[in-house]
Write a structure and sequence with these properties.
DNA-directed DNA polymerase activity; single chain; DNA polymerase delta subunit 4; mainly alpha; 180 residues; DNA_pol_delta_4
Length: 180
């Protein structure tokens, strides 16, 4: 029968293992003084260190913004289609009627859009309408035309606002600006 590990006779017992001691010299402890305490203890004149002034670099457009601007230029340079001509005939009164209809569909009024123009409200509503596809990383005009090509019936008023806009700022979705 093999000897048991517990108990047993003295010849089968192992000697007790000694505990490891690292000594007091190599002992790791937390620092006793925090940096703020050491600064307070020093002379106030010595504490006054002037940080280096960082000059901001000139603002460069984000890569996504550059891509959307290029898409917008391509879309605008195309010849006018029948939808484009119809959209150019949309009057300001038609835009107001469209927006009143969209507002009537809501239960509560929009709170944070009082200081936006009618055109910006229409474009932001289009941005947030997921039925026309994603709005991030694509120009609004290209998104409208893609939705039209897929027979999703995007509102002609949105195309009217996009075609009448003089700047390419209106080509980038508001959500896209927030996300990048």
């Amino acid at each position: 029968m093999p000897p048991s590990r517990r108990g047993g006779n003295a010849s089968t017992r192992r000697p007790n293992q000694s505990t490891l001691s690292f000594g007091t010299r190599s002992r790791i402890t937390k620092p006793t003084a925090t940096p703020t305490q050491s600064l307070k203890a020093k002379n106030p004149v010595e504490r006054a260190v002037v940080p280096d002034v960082v000059t901001p670099e000139p603002a460069q457009p984000h890569i996504a913004e550059v891509v959307v601007r290029e898409q917008a230029k391509e879309e605008v340079s195309q010849p006018l289609s029948a939808e484009d001509e119809r959209a150019l005939k949309v009057s300001q009164r038609d835009l107001q009627r469209y927006w009143k209809g969209e507002e009537a569909k809501r239960r509560t009024p929009r709170v944070h859009q009082q200081d936006l123009s009618l055109e910006e409200k229409i474009l932001r509503h289009f941005d947030l309408s997921s039925q026309y596809g994603p709005c991030i990383g694509i120009a609004r005009l290209k998104r409208w035309r893609r939705a039209s090509m897929l027979n999703l019936d995007p509102p002609i008023e949105v195309l009217a606002v996009l075609l009448k806009a003089e700047t390419d700022v209106n080509q980038r979705a508001h959500v896209d600006e927030l996300m990048s």
